[in-house]
Amino acid sequence: MKKLAVLAIALLLPSPASALTGAELMAAKNAYHIGYVYGVVETRFVVRLNDDPSQDRIRQCISDAQVTPNTLYDLTVEYLKRNPSYVPKIVIAAIFNTLAEMCPAE
């Protein structure tokens, strides 16, 4: 019973990754930040967003370009530098916007 209570508490604690801001992402290029961006990109590919037609296009574009996690991080930081209004916000929208810029609709 004690193990179950500990597990329940652990699951209820907020994840620090869910609140990563653009400023935090830009603060240091490290494995955690690179992995965070890559994880958001992978989630964008796996989770269907209301039958978003751009999802398949972006997935194919990234796959064809063989973009590395480091490149995804660097492009996201460049996006944040060009769009400073996203810097204090949670970075997921900036990552999605970076992908949209990388793979524009034809």
Helix content: 55-70%
What is the chains' assembly state? single chain
- The backbone outline, from C-alpha atoms, is globular
* Biggest beta-sheet profile: none
What is the number of helical segments per DSSP (H or I, 4+ residues)? Answer: 6
- Rg: 16 Å
Poorly predicted residue ranges: none
* H-E string: HHHHHH
Classify the beta-strand content into a percent band.
Answer: under 5%
* Measured distance between first and last alpha carbons: 57 Å
| Number of E-state strands | 0
Structural class: mainly alpha
Number of separate domains:
1
Mean pLDDT: 83
Write structural notes for this entry.
The chain is an all-alpha fold. The protein has one domain (19-102). Helix content is 67%, strand content 0%. It contains 6 helices and no strands. The protein has helices at 2-12, 22-27, 31-46, 53-65, 69-82, 92-102. α5 (69-82) packs across α6. The radius of gyration is 16 Å and the shape is globular. 18% of the residues are buried.
Question: What's the short version?
Answer:
The protein is built from 6 helices and no strands.
Secondary-structure map:
Elements: H1 2-12, H2 22-27, H3 31-46, H4 53-65, H5 69-82, H6 92-102
Helix pairs in contact: 3-5, 3-6, 5-6
Supply database-style keywords.
mainly alpha; 6 helices; 106 residues
